[in-house]
Amino acid sequence: MRRVPWLLVAGVTLACQPEFVTPFGTTELVLDTNLPMPRVANRVRIDVFVEDAASQLGLRWISTKELAVRSHDEVPVSFSVFTQSETPARALVRIRVYDASFVRDYLGERFHDGDPSIADLPPNESSPRLLVNSVDQSPLFEPLPLVAFDRLVWVKPTYGEQKVTHLFLDAQCAGTMANLAKRESCTRTRAKREPAKDAVDEESTVAPETACTVAPRVASTRDGRQLFDEEICVPGGIYLMGTTDVAALTVKDQNGMGSFSSYGVRIAQIAPLLIDRYEVTVGRWRAAMSDGFRPTKVPDAKETPFVNAIPAKITDFCTYSTQPLAGAAAREDFPLNCVDDAAASEFCKYYAGELPTESQWEWVASSAGTSDTRGKRIHPWGSNPPRCDFVIFSRAPANPQAPLESAGGCYTEVKVFGPSSVSNTVGDVFPSVGVYGLGGNLHELMRDTYQEWSDECWATPAWQDPWCDRQGGHALRGGSWTTDQRTTLSVTRQGLRVRGGVSVGFRCVRGGR
């Protein structure tokens, strides 16, 4: 139980200890939640209002309090509302659970039923305001609604009595902004608001199962050659998808397609999944073809060895060949590129899988295997910047038609141009997850259609395993041998602009339950 100093404001006290005596009427609210705290949320904000017909929205704001949560051991948290009046009264308590990194300026109540993070302030509207002795003490910031839990309850302290009520804050209500004017908020059902009710004891919801119950596929060989086809079980969980920290990376090309779009955040629950440990290799594709797989379009092929010499061009680096190449020229363990996105999807379905969604991929790359006390990983392997000898990136010219002499910074260090064997991604892995090559080698095709965060496709996404299913080009995740370290971030999003390019590959996922 957290202990914080008492605070007396306009006849209402907020505290985290119930040990006070009459003649006060007190109601202690004990808050429990299935949100992973403090990894997804590390603050609790409580605002108290009383009914006042003369005030904007019919409510007068009388108190506010912030509680920090530094460890999951500090949950449940509690606070108390008390009154000194013998006259029966009730107060509306607004409870918001959020991450302190995701706030916006407080400019009055800005309710929005779609994407509240982009709502504008109504004309001449700046209320409610917290006035203490006629002095405006309204907080300067408020939680960003799209990633905050926002709940309204009525409390009715009875003079001379001390009550304790247990509330449960269900994570699936995160992102649904309370409607203060209508006194409505989400309680248990995603995106559904209900009229605020009197605070009563609520049972905690059983946390969803996060372990895999389907056995992952084990590694296999064909003609004595490793196929790199094993799967990894990644337990499910709840996390903050996206970020606002790298919004400066958002770049568009001349066609308006986002290139490094990372702006926006959503809370998502990911079910346990099985994901390929490596990007799909040439040899694995060839084995599927020999087993009967018939894609609508075969990958573009390069029938000769790679040549790291001028006048080589990026377009010379398709990894597939119609027949295996021999000796040092062999590329069977290289990730497959120059593959049509529809054919990649067909391959995954052939093995009862799918292309990963953006939310699944980012969960694996940024948050799976991380304790609740740690934030998201900057890169799939951790916080350290990428090294040319461990991550396959920045090996190509910025201009696709430029010769090797203008190749990226890593080419000058490792003297390798083009993609590389998936076995060369030993540094591109988070040990407790065990999935290789998320940060580099090839960009990876997602099941999602690429849309900016501001699009309605992401404004009110599904709570569980959200994804964007619309017409248009596929989204891409992860870095590539052709791009710089910005694409190695675990949150960087891109849109597919050229189908079947030399920098794009894929891996597959299956449900883990």
What are the SSEs and their pairings?
Elements: E1 7-9, E2 12-14, E3 25-33, E4 43-51, E5 59-68, E6 77-83, E7 91-98, E8 103-105, E9 131-132, E10 135-136, E11 141-143, E12 149-155, E13 162-169, E14 184-186, E15 193-195, E16 221-222, E17 225-226, E18 231-234, E19 237-243, E20 264-270, E21 273-276, H1 282-290, H2 341-350, H3 358-367, H4 409-414, E22 443-449, H5 456-459, E23 474-477, E24 493-495, E25 504-505, E26 509-511
Parallel strand pairs: 3-13, 22-25
Antiparallel strand pairs: 1-2, 3-6, 4-5, 4-7, 7-12, 8-11, 9-10, 14-15, 16-17, 18-21, 19-20, 21-26, 22-23, 23-24
In whole angstroms, how far apart are the ends? Answer: 36 Å
CATH hierarchy class name of the largest domain:
Alpha Beta
Mean pLDDT score: 85
- Shape descriptor reads elongated
- Biggest pleated sheet: 4 strands, antiparallel
Q: Reading side by side through the largest sheet, how are the strands ordered?
A: 5-4-7-12
CATH superfamily of the largest domain: paralog of FGE (formylglycine-generating enzyme)
Derived structural class: mainly beta
Name the beta content range. Answer: 15-25%
Taken together, the total number of domains comes to 2
Low-confidence spans: 1-22, 247-260
Gyration radius, in Å: 27 Å
The CATH architecture category of the largest domain equals Alpha-Beta Complex
> Counting H and I runs of at least 4 residues, what is the number of helices?
5
- CATH domain fold name of the largest domain: paralog of FGE (formylglycine-generating enzyme)
Helix content: under 10%
Number of strands: 26
